[in-house]
Amino acid sequence: MTNPESAAEVSVTQRLVAVAAGHYELTALVGGIRSDGRPGADTYTYARLAATVQAAATGLAWRGLRPRDVVGVYVPDAVSFVLAMHAVRAAGGVPTPVAHGLGAAEMAGQLAESGARMLITAPPLADIALAAADRSWVRQVFSFGDAAGTTPFSDLLGRGIERPPRILPHDAALLVFSRGQDGRLRPTPVSHVQMADQMGRMDELAGLIKRDVVVAAPPAGDGLTYTMLIDSALFCGATVVAARTQELARQAAAHHGAAVIVPDGARVRLPARIRVLTAA
């Protein structure tokens, strides 16, 4: 297992970019969304994934993102989630995933408490994202796909690639908001060294190998386990296919999936050979 302190000398995203250099021709992501908010069929090789993440990071920095700034991530599918989370982290920022199902008021509360000034979203979530942004400190909203009142994520690209900022092992790499026993959302920062440690454990749990296909439901829970499962798949050179929860079985069959990532509590009928990885 990788030593967490050594792994934390670079961010998870910097490690992914390094991994991508060895898998550049392999397919990393399949899916995403179309401009009307429906599932798409966009494909990212590892080379394209790394280039997009780094270019978007430069765009975010040009738009004012600074190291340790928090950015909300409220997206409907695995592909958008990967691109948003790693673009923020590549710029030195701290992504905070916003759970699906939150109302605009509660979402605004999370964004305000985290101090986020930027938010990344996509149809069909853009309307509630904008409503929440208006009630928080968020001043810039970026969207995968067309959404009135937002800036296209694609506008972040095209400004080249800058050298990644230096990170410290105990800097925050992720800010998750989990619901306590009293029903309130409370923030928990996760450091780079903590992520490295949990990634090592997740690698052993998932048991994925190069060229495996992992079919992933939309982001689930507070985003922590979901993040670890997705990144574990990418670090080993697997392909992540984005799918709606009700289409997991069909997509797993169509893509010869080795595993699926399902929301906690979801019931999906799958052949015994397909591993079920639960994102709480």
Reconstruct the topology from this structure:
Blueprint: H1 4-7, H2 12-22, E1 27-33, E2 39-45, H3 46-62, E3 70-74, H4 78-90, E4 94-97, H5 104-114, E5 118-121, H6 126-134, E6 140-143, E7 151-152, E8 172-179, E9 185-191, H7 192-206, E10 213-216, H8 224-235, E11 239-242, H9 248-254, E12 259-263, E13 275-279
Parallel strand pairs: 1-11, 3-4, 3-5, 5-6, 6-7, 10-11, 10-12, 12-13
Antiparallel strand pairs: 1-2, 8-9
Helix pairs in contact: 2-3, 3-4, 5-6, 7-8
Short summary of the structure?
The chain has 280 residues and is α/β, with parallel strands linked by helices. The chain has nine helices and 13 strands. The chain has a single domain, classed as 3-Layer(aba) Sandwich (Rossmann fold).
Plain-language structure description:
The chain has about 280 residues and is of the alpha/beta class. It has a single domain, classed as 3-Layer(aba) Sandwich (Rossmann fold). Helix content is about 35%, strand content about 25%. It has nine helices and 13 strands. It has helices at about 5, 10-20, 45-60, 80-90, 105-115, 125-135, 190-205, 225-235, 250-255; strands spanning about 25-35, 40-45, 70-75, 95, 120, 140-145, 150, 170-180, 185-190, 215, 240, 260-265, 275-280. The strands form three sheets. The chain has a six-stranded mixed sheet with strand order 2-1-11-10-12-13, sandwiched between helices. Helix 4 links the parallel strand 3 (about 70-75) and strand 4 (about 95). Helix 2 runs antiparallel to helix 3, helix 3 (about 45-60) packs across helix 4 and helix 5 crosses helix 6.
